[in-house]
């Protein structure tokens, strides 16, 4: 049950409307998280700008795998439903790869290095080791890519925290709890 208002289209602040309308057109509907987040044009528009910029980082399979790993660590069930859906339908990841990503891994060695690094970033609050950095570099990631991984971790953490605090009703198919996978 949501712990904040999920805005109707008529309630959306004017300063959030253009961004929310664009996201709605892109997705095909307005997710409850976005309809709630839009209450703060400052926070919502900043998040949407970050989302738009980071949608150009890495590849979609890696981005979704990082989103799954981070959301699992942060215990965000809303985001796990979203990322599981997008990983399957947009990134075309098979179900076993989605489960693997939630556990902080991937079958592809390069993506595995990125997901493992992202998980270490969130678990250690950024206090990664030199060996962690070496591993992601050795997998072929540039300094710019590593910065993008850290930025993705931060962006996904923002939505995880938002959704954990406000608990909007889920509008994507439910996923099994972590203990069941």
Describe the structure.
By secondary structure, the protein is mostly helical. It folds into two domains: 14-54, no CATH class; 60-176, AhpD-like (Up-down Bundle), CATH 1.20.1290.10. Helix content is 65%, strand content 0%. It is built from nine helices and no strands. The longest helix has 24 residues, at 143-166. The protein is globular. The mean pLDDT is 96.
Overall spatial form: globular
| End-to-end CA span | 24 Å
CATH superfamily of the largest domain: AhpD-like
H/I helix tally: 9
**What is the name of the CATH topology of the largest domain?**
AhpD-like
Reading off the top of the CATH hierarchy, the class of the largest domain is best stated as Mainly Alpha
Low-pLDDT segments: none
Helix content: 55-70%
Name of the CATH architecture of the largest domain? Up-down Bundle
Q: Determine the strand fraction and express it as a percent band.
A: under 5%
Q: What's the total count of β strands?
A: 0
Q: What is the C-alpha radius of gyration, as a whole number of Å? A: 16 Å
Mean pLDDT, as a whole number?
96
Number of domains: 2
Structural class: mainly alpha
Summarize the main sheet: none
Order of helices and strands: HHHHHHHHH
Domain Carboxymuconolactone decarboxylase-like: 44-102
InterPro entries: AhpD-like (IPR029032), AhpD_core (IPR004675), CMD-like (IPR003779), Uncharacterised_peroxidase-rel (IPR010195)
Keywords: Oxidoreductase, Peroxidase
Pfam families: CMD
């Amino acid at each position: 049950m949501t712990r904040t208002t999920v805005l109707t289209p008529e309630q959306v602040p004017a300063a959030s409307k253009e961004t929310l309308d664009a996201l709605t057109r892109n997705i095909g509907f307005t997710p409850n998280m976005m309809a709630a987040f839009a209450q703060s044009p400052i926070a919502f528009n900043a998040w949407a700008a970050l989302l738009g910029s980071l949608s150009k980082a890495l590849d979609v399979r890696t981005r979704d795998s990082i989103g799954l790993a981070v959301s699992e660590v942060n215990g965000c069930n809303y985001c796990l439903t979203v990322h599981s859906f997008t990983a399957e339908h947009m990134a075309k990841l098979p179900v076993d790869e989605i489960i693997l990503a939630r556990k902080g891994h991937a079958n592809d060695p390069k993506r595995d290095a990125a997901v493992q690094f992202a998980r270490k970033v969130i678990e250690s609050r950024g206090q990664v080791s030199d060996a962690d950095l070496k591993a992601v570099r050795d997998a072929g990631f540039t300094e710019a890519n590593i910065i993008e991984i850290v930025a993705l971790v931060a962006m996904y953490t923002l939505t995880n925290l938002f959704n954990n605090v406000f608990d909007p009703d889920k509008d994507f198919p439910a996923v099994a709890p972590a203990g069941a996978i």
